[in-house]
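task queued by scheduler; priority normal; single chain, no ligands, no partner chains; default sampling; output format set to structure tokens
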Amino acid sequence: MTSTHDSTVPAPDPQEAAERLERGLGRRGFVQAALATGALMAAGVATAGPAAATPTRTRLPGEVLQPGRGPIDGQHYLPSRPDQVRWGYLPRTTDKPVLTMRSGRTVTIDTVSHEGILEDQGKDPVAWFGSKGVPRNRVLDDAVAIAREYGRHKRNFDADGPHVVTGPIHVEGAAPGDVLKIELLTALPRVPYGVISSRHGKGALSASFAGAPGDITAAEVFRRPRTAGARRTRCCTATSPTSRRCRRAGASSGRPCLAERRGRWRGRSTRSPA
């Protein structure tokens, strides 16, 4: 018995297909099926595909992406060693770049999550993730190194931010007033797990949870300026799952503010009017 595939039939729309599945299985069944499929792919059971298939932007590498291992799609590669990251702060214009590249080139960046390395977690990701059932070979070596060796500034847990920021990257030819365009080409999760947390009265959802007696209050975290006529500013932060990403950089300096990912990026720049 043989089967044929009619190439003239258009491929189904992914959103429409997902909606049909959800209607047929129900919301709970649809989520359970999606989780089961993801687990199979992570185990390498469902990774086979047509030889001529076009690679997708996000794919599962099938292994833990330790520094320098696995797919590195970019023309440049930037790991996250202790001397290549800022822990708790964004890079400033006076900071020395950790990578220099030309406009239009691509770079693969390994990013690292703060979870497991923070002071209130013991600054020991091997022990902290081990208590959650994660074996040592699935804990990222660069996360271990940052927790043990980071020394670009003396950390103050009560004052510093939690996030590990890789960079900055200098793009040759960049000038003040340039606009940087960054295109995400690929994104690969570096580990098959992730962490979501909201604690110490901080984070995007802190106001949604009642704190314990004596805990940090919202007024302490979101203090309003008392100076007359002061301009109100708003600050937001975001984290991503553990991954490796690749970008193409345009003619401007820039840096990723991500969690543990590896990916390839592409960018272009245009000169802004003065």
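post-processing summary
- Helices lie at 14-25, 27-42, 125-130, 141-149, 218-221.
- The radius of gyration is 22 Å.
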